[in-house]
């Protein structure tokens, strides 16, 4: 069935592992991810961004995910990624999602609380779980100075107040990750001291890490080998993600690594088989590449195989 994140997070917290939340945009991506989770018997969150809803349409993604649940027999949580206002959260709750994120992280603290609380009230009445966000992800890779870090990274005291006053089920925090393929200019670092503080002040409460792709060099290299131009890409080292998963982080968001795996595969196929033009010829290996990437994450990054 489609399930909320509630039970998954409780088990993940206690078992000191994390659940992968993978972004989905089409059938091949959904099938690749779900096949991997099924083979690994792993808990799974599929997440849909506003851009994905616009690209594929809500109803197509909804029906594809329902098909995945029925075909695989897996419990799957279907989550809205980065909902920016009440309306999109309401549309997803009314439209069958089991979890939503309201991302008020750009708003002043009190406005973020008010908006998040409004979504929580609506969602909880309907049995849907809610993720909030506090702290700023974008541009934090530049926050080398302590003063900038204090202004953008999640403040532990505020995190406690935010969770208490909004009633959110999970909280996305900023500790140095960022979205996309260019996360760090120099050595990758995350503020584990801050994570430890937040985690200790919110015992038993599930935290979420966005911007958690590792940007594996092998996949960037394959893109570039077959005509791509991706320069200076760098992600979060896998051992840091494993560590975060033992420190109260129950959900790890991954999109960029799926994009790189799929694009590398398609580029390679078309370069090696220039006569091919049946989309199934390159989408089948692309789907397989997604599956292999997700299996790798489940085993080596999330530690959630067989859970
Ligand atoms: O956080 C962003 C996710 O990677 C989704 O990206 O908004 O381009 O669909 P998108
Ligand atoms: P990446 O860009 O690191 O894959 O992060 C995805 C994400 O946080 C989606 O919400
Ligand atoms: Na999310
Ligand atoms: Zn995100």
From TrEMBL:
Catalytic reaction equation(s): beta-D-fructose 1,6-bisphosphate = D-glyceraldehyde 3-phosphate + dihydroxyacetone phosphate
Binding site for Zn(2+) 2: 103, 133
Cofactor detail note: Binds 2 Zn(2+) ions per subunit. One is catalytic and the other provides a structural contribution.
Cofactor dependency: Zn(2+)
MF (Gene Ontology): fructose-bisphosphate aldolase activity; zinc ion binding
Enzyme Commission number(s): 4.1.2.13
Pathway: Carbohydrate degradation; glycolysis; D-glyceraldehyde 3-phosphate and glycerone phosphate from D-glucose: step 4/4
Active site: 81
Positions with a binding annotation for dihydroxyacetone phosphate: 180, 211-213, 253-256
Keywords: Glycolysis, Lyase, Metal-binding, Zinc
UniProt-listed InterPro entries: Aldolase_TIM, Class_II_FBP_aldolase, FBA_II, Fruc_bis_ald_class-2
One Pfam family this sequence matches: F_bP_aldolase
Chain positions recorded as Zn(2+) 1 binding sites: 82, 179, 210
GO annotation terms (biological process): fructose 1,6-bisphosphate metabolic process; glycolytic process
Function noted in UniProt: Catalyzes the aldol condensation of dihydroxyacetone phosphate (DHAP or glycerone-phosphate) with glyceraldehyde 3-phosphate (G3P) to form fructose 1,6-bisphosphate (FBP) in gluconeogenesis and the reverse reaction in glycolysis.
Family membership noted in the UniProt record: Belongs to the class II fructose-bisphosphate aldolase family.
Protein name: Fructose-bisphosphate aldolase
Source organism of this protein record: Thermosinus carboxydivorans Nor1
